[in-house]
Design a protein that fits this description.
Blueprint: H1 3-7, E1 16-23, E2 29-35, E3 42-47, E4 52-65, H2 67-70, H3 73-79, H4 83-91
Antiparallel strand pairs: 1-2, 1-4, 3-4
Length: 92
């Protein structure tokens, strides 16, 4: 194998990404995770600045999430994934 093939090899893209969500009312921001191939997020979430729920829209992508990071139970809950299924995928 040539050295150039090793140096120019492409990495596989992550399945999930971290995105920044911003309130359309007050500008409050928080981060959440979503699937890379999914549509941009738009959701109702509690806004602490105005003490009520408001519409949040995805503003920008922050970074890719590695499979090890996705295995964290907090991230699992955020993504709505079953932990046992993800462990089986990683082990195979």
């Amino acid at each position: 194998m040539f050295l150039t093939n090793v140096l120019l090899a492409k990495k596989a893209k992550a399945k999930h990404i971290l995105v920044l969500m911003e309130s359309m009312v007050s500008g409050h921001q928080f981060m959440t995770a979503r699937e890379r191939l999914g549509e941009k997020l738009e959701l109702l979430h509690y806004d602490p600045y105005i003490n009520t729920t408001s519409v949040y829209k995805e503003r920008k992508k922050i970074k890719s999430l590695s499979p090890k990071f996705v295995m964290d139970p907090k991230i699992q809950k955020m993504l709505g994934l079953d932990i046992d299924e993800e462990i089986k995928k990683v082990q195979t």
